[in-house]
Design brief:
The structure is a single chain. The protein has 82 residues and is an all-alpha fold. 60% of the residues lie in helices and 0% in strands. It is built from three helices and no strands. Helix 2 runs antiparallel to helix 3. The longest helix has 23 residues. The protein starts with a helix and ends in a 6-residue tail after the last helix. InterPro entries: DUF3098 (IPR021448). This is DUF3098 domain-containing protein.
């Protein structure tokens, strides 16, 4: 009766490959946020047009969104057969 509970081996909810894919997705999200950094002006009275560049307005949000979609895939992916 008690032996069944103690004989079970501890297992993670996801496979090693899932955690690796989640780390990659997290890296993509961090890269997107890093690309959003910058564009400020040294003088607060002068507006810097650099804040509206392609990198900050288009590329970085697409990378962050792609990272979140990749995270969903990494979590939902079924582990391979052992």
């Amino acid at each position: 009766m008690w032996s069944n509970k103690h004989d079970k081996k501890f297992e993670f909810a996801l496979d090693k490959q899932n955690y690796l894919l989640m780390a990659i997705g997290f890296g993509i999200i961090i890269l997107g946020f890093i690309l959003m950094i910058g564009g400020r002006s040294e003088d607060p009275n002068v507006f810097n047009e650099e804040i509206y560049g392609f990198q900050r307005i288009t590329l970085a949000p697409m990378l962050v969104l792609a990272g979140f979609v990749f995270e969903i895939y990494a979590i939902m992916k079924k582990p391979g057969k052992k």
